[in-house]
Amino acid sequence: xxxxxxxxxxxxxxxxxxxxxxxxxxxxxxxxxxxxxxxxxxxxxxxxxxxxxxxxxxxxxxxxxxxxxxxxxxxxxxxxxxxxxxxxxxxxxxxxxxxxxxxxxxxxxxxxxxxxxxxxxxxxxxxxxxxxxxxxxxxxxxxxxxxxxxxxxxxxxxxxxxxxxxxxxxxxxxxxxxxxxxxxxxxxxxxxxxxxxxxxxxxxxxxxxxxxxxxxxxxxxxxxxxxxxxxxxxxxxxxxxxxxxxxxxxxxxxxxxxxxxxxxxxxxxxxxxxxxxxxxxxxxxxxxxxxxxxxxxxxxxxxxxxxxxxxxxxxxxxxxxxxxxxxxxxxxxxxxxxxxxxxxxxxxxxxxxxxxxxxxxxxxxxxxxxxxxxxxxxxxxxxxxxxxxxxxxxxxxxxxxxxxxxxxxxxxxxxxxxxxxxxxxxxxxxxxxxxxxxxxxxxxxxxxxxxxxxxxxxxxxxxxxxxxxxxxxxxxxxxxxxxxxxxxxxxxxxxxxxxxxxxxxxxxxxxxxxxxxxxxxxxxxxxxxxxxxxxxxxxxxxxxxxxxxxxxxxxxxxxxxxxxxxxxxxxxxxxxxxxxxxxxxxxxxxxxxxxxxxxxxxxxxxxxxxxxxxxxxxxxxxxxxxxxxxxxxxxxxxxxxxxxxxxxxxxxxxxxxxxxxxxxxxxxxxxxxxxxx
Length: 677
What we know:
Largest sheet: 7 strands, mixed
Shape: elongated
Low-confidence stretches: none
Helix content: 40-55%
Strand content: 5-15%
Radius of gyration: 34 Å
């Protein structure tokens, strides 16, 4: 017993505090045996003598007793008393997100032997070794390794949670060593091999992707890197214990030995295990192929990797089918010209396209800055998922956010819907390395996914590669393989998904000049099971809130004022509150291109615009029959000025110059009832 430092540990004994333990040591009551002989302890009230329990546990090598009764910060006493019951463990992953990344390998060191597990293989070997130890040692495992394992491998988690855990990050911090593992290693004089110079977590991800592409030495290097992470942990543990604890805060008694570091055997994995890892990734992780998005191939989609200033070029990618062309463009005007010339039908922008709800300015002088903050709901969600994302309104993002919002408004005003994308998150989801991980494999990942173009063989910037990813997100969106995150008060951020949305909105929008018969058509569609909503309803609610009389004149005047002062997007946001929980919707009274783009952004492939085309005489006659005022004055109002321009955006143009039944028949011919409701 005397060679174990636990023989000199006392605060695991009931009734002995940390302060009393230190007092005893100073008083010469050093060991548990001394405690029994010299200390005046009164244990008669206990059924079992706590001191005897502690001594018996040590005699019987009952490690579990000490795990149960010692404070976690003192678990090092167990580790240096029973080194054969200790495992050092470290994982490698494809990224930081426990939602989108996966564990590529796990390395562990026990009884001077290093072993590893590769993704997709059984975890039996690791579980067997875990069952033979009492303590697991990690660096930052509390926040990273163990939660990652918990989320991916329940059987492994169940074993790990029964083990004591020493997290060297916090162990080192108690002795004033802070930062990442490599920073502390440098500070303590640990030297890694020359062939690992510059290799870090980012490079470890790249090594895994190289292995998946057939580079076996890359896997060997990844394992070598993981092993040296564990070597560093062992060195750190030894150094701090023998230089900062033993003989200083803990008596220099017993005969603790350093944990030995021995080189691992080269055959730590088999060829079969390596092949199993590749096959599992191909089958279960990267199985989703571009061909699954064929429903979107009919659309021409643009992706923009936007910069915060027109002085610096933004990446632009135009994608149709699997063909992509890219360019670097500086000004907003040139971007818009390119979109028009290319006849783009959807734009996906890598930039925040909205402010946190309640903010009115991107800059820090916004009076709501302190109350509301700088982060939107979508960014909070990504953070919780472990995705590294910048808040929309940190100083370095403010001008980008301002430009993104303004550019999106310009694009919507020319009739092209816009979505917000985040290439980094999209790449995580699609298991394509980010540009900061490996630019070559980002490009290769897009090629492997199925995209083609001259950029495959030409040098291409990271901005263009992210623009391609943004355009690809647009394809996912166009065929309902997507998830929107955020809330209705702000813009949604669109993420690709390998699962098609089961609940999709089907929206029919109606437009036409005054008295063309829009409402008659909308009410007919409503009878087919659609939820009816009208833009003038939203304006009427605004009038009622402000105690303004509700009539056609006020509806027109204030509708024009809202468009001018608040923007049509403000009105559409209020419309969204009425329809966000509805599945089938008919929207009456579309007047502006922004209305069309907004509804397409809600349900791109399931939005149909119907233009009711009625001759002037029929419209005027119907209007006069309703006795609603002067037709010429009302029809010439500014709020009606864009309506005829919407005709060229319509999916269906219906003539309404005859009877109501003829109108209904024309609607039926459009075959809008494709989906059972």
